[in-house]
Amino acid sequence: MEQEKYTFIDVCQQDFDGIEIPIIQRDYAQGREKEEKKRDRFLKALLRAVNSEKGISLDFVYGSIIDKKLVPLDGQQRLTTLFLLHWYAAKRENIPAGQWEVLKKFSYATRPGARRFCEQLLVFVPDFDAGKHLSEQICNEAWFPMAWNDDPTVEGMLRMLDAIHRTFAGTIHLWKALTEDRKITFYFKKLEDMDITDDIYIKMNSRGKPLTDFEHFKAEFTEAIRETIGNDTISHKIDVAWTNMLWPYRSSNNIIDEEFLNYFHFLTDIIRIKSDNDMGNNKDYFEMIPFYKRNNNNVTFLEKAFDLWEGVNIDEVFNAYLSGEDYETGKVKVYDKQTNLFKDCCKNYTGVGTRGSFGFNKMLILYAFIVWKTKATNITDSDFARRIRIVRNLVWNSTDEIRLERMKNLLEEVEEIVINASLTEESNGFNIRQKREEIEKIAWCDQNPNLTEKLFELEDHWTLCGCIAAVGLDNPENFDSFRALFDNDLLLVSKALLTYGDYSQTYTDKRYRFIASHNYRTWQEMLQPSQQRKEFEKTKDTIALLLGSLKSLSAADLEKQIQTYLKDANTLKDWRYYSIKYSSILSYAQNGMYYQEEEWQQHYNIEVLRKNSFRGFHWNAILIAIYEETEETEETEETELVKDDWGSPFTLKNGMTLENTNETLIFRDNDKIVHTEKIPQTSEGIDLIDRVEKALELIRTYQ
Predict the structure, then answer these.
(1) I need a labelling partner for 348 at 20 to 30 A (CA). Which of 138, 178, 298, 604 fits?
(2) What is the DSSP string of 453-505?
């Protein structure tokens, strides 16, 4: 029976006692109420086949011959639907019983309700002109017990019969199309003739709980592939080799449909992007099938992209080159516990540009592996390790460039890097600045092979993510020092840096300033040049000054430097002084953002922003420092301030308010000024006394 196309009647006419759906199979899911869309799609595909010249093949049905009965392993859903369709055609067209009696060979094992229903259905003669649903007529029959209404398989078959009637009511000569014209066929293979193990049996048999697109999708997809390449190689791979390969990543219900479709979706998105075909974020797998119809190149790419994972330890493939959250010699860090990007894709890919854990970055890195395994098999392991590092560096440092409209160029650049180690500054792909850095690092590594691993370790530091612009290549002695510095508490690092200079960066809107402190994400952002911010070189120079000044970079040494700065009589009491001494000024800015109505100067009316905008929570920096200091005194109850979240004056317990301006502290009682404290300042407007300490003294007085 192998390698031949069979109709449902062909199988029924074979020399055995019947077709028996085994107990291991799930209920008849194609008839479930919630599957109407999928059910209608499948039936319309069958209708098109009946009315076409070529018809349709529903791919392979696998089974065994047990006690002279055909027991289908894979294909129960399709066989049940075909049984119902043949019943419908026979009854509606009054086909003589001698032609359709072979349908009696179809039955359900260990499901007495379903089995008896099929038996009675064959005897039943419906009235197609009664104006009633077939299901309604059947349920009104005396032989139909009420208990069958609770049988999901019977319920599903009733619903399918109604759907078949809606779809095929206008079709003439349906029985002939199904039997003589052979418009709906499938391939049948006996498991005994295949090298199929018990676990594969479970894999194939478990696929459809609950009903997914897969059965319908696979029928249409494999038909399109067959039309393109002229054989069923891929169909067989889906059922056996690729199922076996995906099995370790199966869902909790022992199915791999979703995992297959997610990876298929990923590969199809690669194809459509490279072909400039805009599908948007459409996740309809059926609409992806045309990419493979009569397109050998796309089919070849798909097949190779699946085949490359077959027969290998996939975890080991990725673990050999990628590390998760810690630096490992010879690997590149991807800052994620999950380094198996194939598994990640199968589990989490939802479409290019969509929100989810498998985004653009992972998409490009995984594609690099696919290119290596399918197009660059001649390069050495060490060459690939170096090239995947370059790809990682570019991917992680092209935040503004990595977007859907540039993905074609980005994919092409990944290919060039992996296959030819080619990297140019031109193109509309990755960030130009980062590409220049990578070109410089390649030349530097050639000249300094003994320091290459030190450079890689620096690249993988959590603050840099591949971009070393904040450190540079001129002073390799700073590689280890930088890592030692940023392994300390970040707030401590921020304070220590401020003792050496103003390392902040100004945004395009000069009223906003960026000062990273305690949040590691803000440091990652600050240590990478950005078109939105100026003065990156100032940050770089301040870091270099600190690294070149301190012999040791322990927490104790940083704290010593801070205290020396604060106690120095020559230290100016500018905004840096207050930010260093009063931690709240730095810690309240969760994203490192500060605002000043005028261009940033040596002023004291700086606003600390909780997030990124002045429209959100914000407070005067000096008032925040005063507020936190009152919280820490022994007289908390007597001296506590109440702060508003929107930049308003702070309120004392007695109802008075406290304001801070560039030159004064102002106490008000019901808008009446009670006291104005003018802060002594230099001719340049720099405080000569600590205004926070002065404010605390006055609060105790007026409280």
Answers:
(1) 298
(2) HHHHHHHTSTTTTT--TTT-SS-TTHHHHHHHHTTS-HHHHHHHHHHH----E
Using the predicted structure, report yes or no on whether residue 593 has a pLDDT greater than 90.
yes
Q: Please report, as a single letter, which amino acid is at residue 570.
A: N
Structure tokens at 211: 């009903």
SS3 (DSSP) at 668? strand
Q: Are 505 and 536 in contact (CB under 8 A)?
A: yes
Other residues' Cβ atoms within 10 Å of the Cβ of residue 475: 13
- Most confident listed range (201-210, 284-293, 358-367): 358-367
Q: Alpha-carbon distance 366 to 4, whole Å?
A: 39
d(CA 322, CA 340): 9
Q: Based on the number of CB atoms within 10 Å of its own CB, is 26 exposed (0-12), middle (13-18) or buried (19 or more)?
A: middle
One-letter identity of residue 142: A
DSSP 659: E
Q: What angle do CA 198, 204, 208 make, to 5 degrees?
A: 140
pLDDT at 113: 84
Q: Is the pLDDT of residue 210 over 60?
A: no
Checking if the pLDDT of 77 tops 50, the result is yes
Determine the number of helices (DSSP H) and then strands (DSSP E) in the chain.
Answer: 31, 19
Residue with tokens 């009637």: 165
Q: Is beta strand 184-190 parallel, antiparallel or unpaired with respect to 56-66?
A: parallel
User: Structural domain boundaries of the chain?
Assistant: 5-194, 243-447, 457-601, 625-702
C-alpha dihedral sign at 176, 179, 181, 183: positive
* pTM (2 d.p.): 0.75
538 Rama class: left (phi>0) / alpha (psi -120 to 50) / beta: alpha
The conformational region for residue 264 under phi > 0 = left, psi -120 to 50 = alpha, else beta, is alpha
CA contacts within 13 A on the Cβ side of 365: 29
- The Cα–Cα gap between 442 and 435 comes to 11
Compute the mean pLDDT over every residue in the chain, rounded to the nearest whole number.
Answer: 89
For residue 47, the surrounding DSSP H or E stretch is helix 36-50
Burial of 131 (0-12, 13-18, 19+ CB in 10 A): exposed
